[in-house]
């Protein structure tokens, strides 16, 4: 979990640096409207963005999971919905004495987000639901367990974004998830039954790019 703490410290440092930079900017400097308000907060007009992120999680199974997602963001700068699809894979981990299990989770999620802006900087909080399917690959088991399990979780988190103009932004964030359907891997072996439960709460991180579409 040390790397997750490092991510949190780094995100906090980025936010503090952004705030200090904004405070040091000269007052009354003439700037084009697009440069002064790249998020369109002053106009508060409806907009659509596309986001593509690299994602990771240390807490679903014993091994860390990595993957990615893409999403469409629609609404207004300060309040919008994020609709995404993604996948996250976990390398094989040992279950009992007989073999190993690997997994891929395919998900769709819907989140409602609220954001605060200052110049090119944005802080955003999101929360919602995630649903999908977990595909399992069993290796070395005489009687493997189920190959597909339902996935449903409450998800949330926050991110910091830096606008690189009116169209493009770079963002990074931390989040969490709480599975609503308890995941349990069960397989029968000669020695009895082997079981592995997923984490009750899992953490996530993401870094990616956003593109304004309209």
What is the secondary structure topology, with strand pairs?
Elements: H1 2-24, H2 33-36, E1 47-57, E2 65-76, E3 79-95, E4 99-118, E5 121-139, E6 148-163, E7 168-179, E8 184-189, E9 192-197, E10 202-212
Antiparallel strand pairs: 1-2, 1-10, 2-3, 3-4, 4-5, 5-6, 6-7, 7-10, 8-9
Written account of the structure:
It is a single chain. By secondary structure, the chain is mostly beta strands. Helix content is 13%, strand content 61%. The protein has two helices and ten strands. The chain has helices at 2-24, 33-36, and strands at 47-57, 65-76, 79-95, 99-118, 121-139, 148-163, 168-179, 184-189, 192-197, 202-212. It has an eight-stranded antiparallel beta barrel. Strand 1 (47-57) and strand 2 form a beta hairpin. The longest helix is centred in the first third of the chain and has 23 residues, at 2-24.
Q: In total, how many beta strands?
A: 10
- Poorly predicted regions are 1-33
Shape: elongated
Number of helices: 2
DSSP strand content: over 45%
Mean pLDDT score, rounded?
81
Order of helices and strands: HHEEEEEEEEEE
Name the helicity range.
Answer: 10-25%
Question: What is the structural class?
Answer: mainly beta
Cα gyration radius (Å): 21 Å
| Major beta sheet summary | 8 strands, antiparallel, barrel
Features of the shown structure:
214 residues; mainly beta; eight-stranded antiparallel β-barrel; 2 helices; 10 strands; disordered N terminus
Question: How is this structure best summarized?
Answer:
With 214 residues, the chain is mainly beta.
């Amino acid at each position: 979990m040390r790397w997750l703490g490092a991510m949190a410290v780094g995100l906090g440092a980025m936010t503090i640096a952004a705030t200090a930079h904004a405070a040091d900017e000269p007052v009354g400097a003439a700037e084009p409207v697009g440069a002064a308000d790249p998020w369109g907060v002053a106009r508060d007009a409806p907009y659509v963005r596309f986001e593509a992120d690299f994602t990771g999680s240390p807490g679903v199974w014993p091994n860390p999971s990595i993957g990615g997602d893409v999403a469409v963001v629609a609404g207004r700068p300060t309040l919008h919905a994020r609709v995404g699809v993604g996948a996250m894979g976990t390398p094989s981990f040992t279950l009992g004495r007989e073999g190993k299990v690997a997994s891929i989770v395919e998900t769709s999620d819907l989140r409602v987000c609220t954001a605060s802006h200052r110049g090119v900087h944005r802080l955003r909080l999101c929360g919602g639901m995630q649903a999908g399917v977990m595909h399992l690959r069993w290796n070395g088991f005489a009687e493997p367990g189920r190959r597909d399990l339902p996935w449903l979780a409450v998800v949330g988190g926050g991110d910091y974004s830096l606008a690189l103009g009116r169209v493009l932004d770079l963002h990074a964030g931390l989040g969490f998830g709480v599975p609503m359907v308890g995941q349990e891997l069960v397989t029968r072996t000669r020695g009895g039954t082997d079981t592995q439960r997923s984490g009750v709460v899992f953490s996530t991180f993401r870094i990616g790019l956003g593109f304004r579409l309209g």
